[in-house]
Amino acid sequence: MVSFYADVLGLKLTSKDIVARFDIDGVLFELVPSRGGGKARGGSNARLCLKVDDITQAVQYLETSGVRAGEVQEVENGKLASFEDPEGNEIYLWQYR
């Protein structure tokens, strides 16, 4: 997982022990192992959205890196496309108008 976020997505890894910490433009993003190795529990819908300048180019890059992305969708204030990390966590690319 760490190599996916660092190498494929290009996030800056700032430290790693049990938890891997990344800096996303001043925002701390952590990969934390779940307790007991199972799936995270909860009924919420949290997701990571990454702002991109050119969503078409970003989707093409992901696909050449072996990551399958969804279709680019036009929405009210821009374009978005989703993909999943190796463990199935949902991530969105967002290009604002």
CATH architecture of the largest domain: Roll
How much β-strand is present in the residues? Answer: 35-45%
**Could you describe the largest sheet, including whether it forms a barrel?**
4 strands, mixed
CATH topology of the largest domain: 2,3-Dihydroxybiphenyl 1,2-Dioxygenase, domain 1
**Mean pLDDT reading:** 91
SS elements, strand count: 7
The H-and-E topology, N to C, reads as: HEEEEHEEE
Number of helices: 2
Radius of gyration over alpha carbons? 14 Å
CATH homology-level superfamily of the largest domain: 2,3-Dihydroxybiphenyl 1,2-Dioxygenase, domain 1
Q: pLDDT below 50 for ≥5 consecutive residues: which ranges?
A: none
Instruction: Give the N-terminus to C-terminus distance in angstroms.
Output: 31 Å
- Secondary structure class reads alpha+beta
Instruction: Record the strand order, biggest sheet.
Output: 4-7-6-5
Descriptive account of the structure:
The termini are far apart. It is globular and about 40 Å long. The mean pLDDT is 91. The chain has a four-stranded mixed beta sheet, with helices on one face. Strands 1-2-3 form a three-stranded antiparallel beta sheet, with helices on one face. The protein has two helices and seven strands; from the N terminus they run H-E-E-E-E-H-E-E-E. The longest helix has 10 residues, at 55-64. Helix content is 18%, strand content 37%. The protein has helices at 2-8, 55-64, and strands at residues 12-16, 20-24, 27-31, 48-51, 73-75, 78-84, 90-96. It has two domains: 1-34, no CATH class; 47-97, Roll (2,3-Dihydroxybiphenyl 1,2-Dioxygenase, domain 1), CATH 3.10.180. With 97 residues, it is α+β, with helices and mostly antiparallel strands.
